[in-house]
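Support reply, case 0932

Customer input (verbatim):
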Amino acid sequence: MVSNQHDARAGGCLPAVLRMAELDADLVHILPSSVLPPFWAKLVVGFVSLVCFARSYDGDFVFDDSEAIVNNKDLQAETPLGDLWRHDFWGSRLSSNTSHKSYRPLTVLTFRINYYLSGGFHPVGFHMVNILLHGGVSVLMVDVFSVLFGGLQYTSRGRRVHLAPRASLLAALLFAVHPVHTECVAGVVGRADLLCALFFLLSFLGYCKAFRESNKEGAHSSTFWVLLSILLGAVAMLCKEQGITVLGLNAVFDILVIGKFNVLEVVQKLLHKDKSLENVGLLRNGGLLLRMTLLTAGGAGMLYVRWKIMGTGPPAFTEVDNPASFADSVWFRAINYNYYYSLNAWLLLCPWWLCFDWSMGCIPLIKSVSDCRVIALAALWLCLIGLICQALCSEDSHKRRILTLGLGFLIIPFLPASNLFFRVGFVVAERVLYLPSIGYCVLLTFGFGALSKHTKKKKLIAAVVLGILFANTLRCVIRSGEWRSEEQLFRSALSVCPLNAKVHYNIGKNLADKGNQTAAIRYYREAVRLNPKYVHAMNNLGNILKERNELQEAEELLSLAVQIQPDFAAAWMNLGIVQNSLKRFEAAEQSYRTAIKHRRKYPDCYYNLGRLYADLNRHVDALNAWRNATVLKPEHSLAWNNMIILLDNTGNLAQAEAVGREALELIPNDHSLMFSLANVLGKSQKYKESEALFLKAIKANPNAASYHGNLAVLYHRWGHLDLAKKHYEISLQLDPAASGTKENYGLLRRKLEQMQKRGV
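Our regenerated output:
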């Protein structure tokens, strides 16, 4: 039996319920009745959501996944769990000035569990969790949309009645297949948005349960459910910062829907100075005031704790990250922000042109009101103002509730990305539309219902809806495939944002990693042409030119990079390497010292500084520099090796042996260290131990000609001439041009011939 207590729950009495049923009836030509029961609706939505993104299950770690997962030490067992609460999303200390301040410890915890269960960085497990999370959120959307379209009607046993099954199913399907979600699902770092959405929706549904019980005055909130909703909102925020906005959405839902606050009625009474305004029930509702107090206190508490954890204040973004926020004129800053909003709206309406990154020239700034793009933001605000007026002022209470909740879900979760409260580090980001797309699906479904009601061409409307669902599903499958590898992802962006320097940079980096330096240079040059201040592209291009011995141009590029960004430590170090190659030793030392000044814990720079000192025969300084490198990075094999070799070459065999043993204790499986220490032990006439290390090194790297050659020298000294001959021959097979090995092999053969003549 359905409860008759409608006033506080449904935002209206029986006529409102009939209007809800009427909306569902308008959609009968689009969705058949056979899939309307909640269980089957959820099954269909879940299946469709999995089909859309299943293609990404065996993809690689791409784009931001490298920094947030592969290079994030917080995922590994050696890192204490407590560090997750002191580090940002990328594994950096929140107190660091370079931290992005993205505090998402619960998301990082799920990555860590994934890493543990997968036995390492195997992307399949990570992708599967993302796909299942999107499926779970999509299934949950059936219940959420049921509330948004059908209201809160409960049976006498406290079970909610689904009054708009068709509308909620259609909206959930539109959400499940929206291509703008691909970044969140196919990109592993998008799990932050998926988890945030999950707990966001649970918080909203929990808040709705606060209105199940009633007393003689009407609906009465359950403090337990309100507090649980706040707790779930906090959990959502610990997955991604956007989660806190659920508290604002719950407040809007409570005031405008549950409290039936009619803005038009109140404005009219204010204009006419109607004394009955004092008797507005909303102002005398103690339960509402208590709920608003709890929501406000909860939100303020979350923000305070978040600010304290953040430590050094908000992150410092550059003009490259968000050029509009650096515009000189407040007027043009506002125009560009609003243009960004219109682009986000367009991505929801027509998600065909998608890009992994929209920064760096992808969207040129509007610098004049005569720019034709101003029309886009004018159109956006015309639509928004029209919808807001209908949501607040319509005499149809059912229309008011749907439009209010649709706009609430569209706008409120988007506010943290709007630049209104603080500067954000991006221009447009598809991932931030995961939650706002809920509001878009509400408005679109309501629009289809209205069209179906007022037109006789109902089959045409049905065909359009089915066409949108099919096209979006197809786009999801295609886009998921593009996210499977970095090469496909980066190249897919060229057709969308050909002026984006970052796209060219990433393609160049991908090519360089694969060894195609010639093509990489072409893309790096284009990135620098599009953005003459792109220091990272200059640094990478300078590195490749250095490796190709084009040292003059490499020095020019790296000098320009540090001139543009004086604290760019990596560029200073690379400039030092180039200057060292040009025999400009004093300048190289100064560059290395500047790099270390800007990044105190820089083991690679200490290593290169040690190489410079070794070239200058400043052996003590070289050893000190390499020791600093190994202190900062105990697994720095090259620094350990150079220490052993330098001590060996200077006759300090005992010290070289001690350093070699220390290094192997820290890096026991490093065959190059085994080789270096074996050489030292051989010179110290510790032949047996030296032989064991040589053989172990050869087992780890059997194709190293020098390993076989030096083992042959050891056998030669030791008097094991047959074994020496065998390994000389293997070494020469691997490297026929090795002159030292040829010479030693010749000496051995002459000695064997002499012994044979003497009959030994």
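We compared this against your earlier run and they match. Two observations from our side: Residues 500-597 form a domain with the Serine Threonine Protein Phosphatase 5, Tetratricopeptide repeat fold (CATH 1.25.40.10). The two ends are 110 Å apart (CA to CA). Please reopen the case if you see a mismatch on your end.
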